[in-house]
Every structure is written in structure tokens, then in C-alpha cells.
Amino acid sequence: MTDLRHHGDADLGPGLVDLAVNVRADAPPPWLRAVLHASLDASAAYPDPVAARAAVAAAHGRPVEEVLLAAGAAEVFVLVARAVRPRLAAVVHPSFTEPEAALRAAGHPVTRVVLSADDGRRLDPAAVPGDADLVVLGNPTNPTSVLHPAADIAALARPGRVLVVDEAFADTVPGERESLASRRDLPGVLVVRSLTKTWGLAGLRVGYALGPAPLIAALEAQQPHWPVSTPALAALAACSTPAARAEADAAARELGHRREVLLRSLPPSVLVEGTPRSSFVLLRVPDGARVRAELRQRGWAVRRGDTFPGLTPDHLRVAVRTPGISSAFSADLAAVLSSAPTPEEVP
């Protein structure tokens, strides 16, 4: 049974270099920390989401009625499971496992659409069952780092179907290419976004969803009062400004350079699955459980792959870091792979 509740933070440990969690920075940038500190002065009052909701709406060219603010993307998936009553939910894998976990916890029937490694883990719209009235996928996809063409995802939208697109990593792609966040012409499309990855805000729990006003209202009806804290609302407003979005885009371009350094430095025996476009890469190595354990002994935490449907213990997800860290990691990975026991040494 796949452990859908396992996440990268469970692979961390004292003294380990974190390549398991996909947050870009150890802390928010100084200007955002100042915003958060200032928001504490307003925290005696109940949260007022009006400004933050308007800022998110303006950033994506939508009316405020098409914006839902939430305590992280994970909350949105729970709200979907509560508000939508699908006859059949299809979840495209390998992908972030919280949507399926939420759907199963709510008692909904779920089928898995597992993308093939032979095809670079690319989306084939024809593989999604036509009778699925709720479809969930990520773009770019965690853990494969594959960026699907917007046209392929749009082909899944149809009347009577809710199409949930997890874009938690969309801002790690320069220009947010292939994003559907500003598309209002597609029926039933719900785009889920997060501030966690680019802005170093995993602990704040802040995200949002964009979609048709009736669907947004149905999700909002499942929320308690004041679901998003005052500091989280301040972060939403601040990170939705043109200046902040330009900073995020510059960070995405730098990320691309760092990712190329990591890919070039990997040992030849390591298989990179798909074509990485986000802040992590999916590797396949021989004897993955041993490799992961020995990397840990050498001070590296990487994300195990076997808790993602469609992957195996030989899959490792590795976050993109600075060139120095990536080169050091690749050197240790090469040493671990070269130290594999020969068949004669295996008991």
C-alpha cells in the first residue's frame, strides 16, 4: 500500500543537507520578512481577506469572485473533496499525493492514471477516462518536474467535469509558461497555487485557488470562518505585486541555470526521468534503497520515490540547490554508486 501521507520533510534529519524538500530558500527574503513582522501589529483583529483577495485577482486578471484564499494548497484539495461529489475521480500520477488522499478520505471512488516513463512521464489526454467527472493533475508535476503543454491540459476540460490543476510550482518556470491561472474560457477548471516554494513560506500555510465563481463559492462554503491568518494574507498581497512577481520570475530563470549545473554533474549511470523544468529532478538509480541510505550517512537527505504511485524504491527526487551543493552531492552520489557490492559480494 502506497503511503500517500509521506512527504519530503519526513526524509530530513539533524545535520543533513536538505535535498528532500522543494522550498527554494531557508527563509523569506528580507522585504517579505518585514511585511510579516509588520502584520503582527494587526493580528489582534480578525483577519480581513479583502485586500489580499483583490491583489491575487488583479495578478491573474480575474474578478475577486473567482479567487479562493486558503491555508495552503493542501487545504484546497480537502475542500474539493468536501464540495465536489464525483462519480469517478481520476488522479494523474506520479504526482503530489495529497489530492488523492483527501478524495479517498472523503469516500470518493478514485482511479489512477499513471504516466509512462517510456514517454517521459508526459500527459496523454486520451489516457484519462472519459467518464471521470473530477480530474486532478499537477503542472509542472511533482515529483517528475515535467511541464505539460497547456493545450494538452485544456483538452481535458469539458462541461460537467471539474479539472483541478495543481500549479504549486508554476512560478518556478520562467514566464509561468503553460499555466492556466488566467484562463477563464475553460469550463470547470480549478487552478491551485501556493506561495510555499518560491517564497520560503511552508510554515505559514498560504495558497489560493482560481476558478469559476460557482465552484469557488462551493469551496468557500466548506471553510471555517477566518481560514487564512493575518500574516498569510499580508504575504498574499505582497507576493502578488508586479515587483514581487518580477522577482519570482528572475528567481525562476536563475533556477534554470542551477538545474543545468546539477544535471551536468550527475554520474553517467544515473537516469534522469522526463525533462525537468522545475526546482527538482527525478532520478532513477540502481539499488535505490541502499543508495538513499548511504547518501544519508554522507550527510544528504533526498526524497524517497516509492511513496508516489507509479514510482519505485529506485527513484529519488532531488531538489535543485546552489552549484556548489549540487556538485558536492553529485560527487558523493558517484562514490556511493561506485561502491556497490559486486555479485560475488552479495550474500
Brief digest:
By secondary structure, the chain is an alpha/beta fold. The chain has 2 domains: 111 residues, Aspartate Aminotransferase, domain 1 (Alpha-Beta Complex), CATH 3.90.1150; 212 residues, Aspartate Aminotransferase, domain 2 (3-Layer(aba) Sandwich). It contains 11 helices and 12 strands.
Q: What order do the helices and strands come in, and which of them pair?
A:
Blueprint: E1 17-19, H1 30-39, H2 50-60, E2 67-70, H3 73-83, E3 89-93, H4 98-105, E4 110-114, E5 134-138, H5 150-154, E6 162-166, E7 189-194, H6 196-199, E8 207-210, H7 213-220, H8 230-239, H9 242-265, E9 271-272, E10 280-284, H10 288-297, E11 300-304, E12 315-319, H11 323-338
Parallel strand pairs: 1-11, 3-4, 3-5, 5-6, 6-7
Antiparallel strand pairs: 2-8, 7-8, 9-10, 10-12, 11-12
Structural write-up:
The protein has 347 residues and is of the alpha/beta class. It has two domains: 8-26 and 245-336, Aspartate Aminotransferase, domain 1 (Alpha-Beta Complex), CATH 3.90.1150.10; 30-241, Aspartate Aminotransferase, domain 2 (3-Layer(aba) Sandwich). 34% of the residues lie in helices and 16% in strands. The strands form two sheets. A seven-stranded mixed sheet has the order 2-8-7-6-5-3-4, with helices on both faces. The protein has a five-stranded mixed sheet with strand order 1-11-12-10-9, covered by helices on one side. It starts with 16 loop residues before the first strand and ends in a 9-residue tail after the last helix. Residues 343-347 have low confidence and may be disordered.
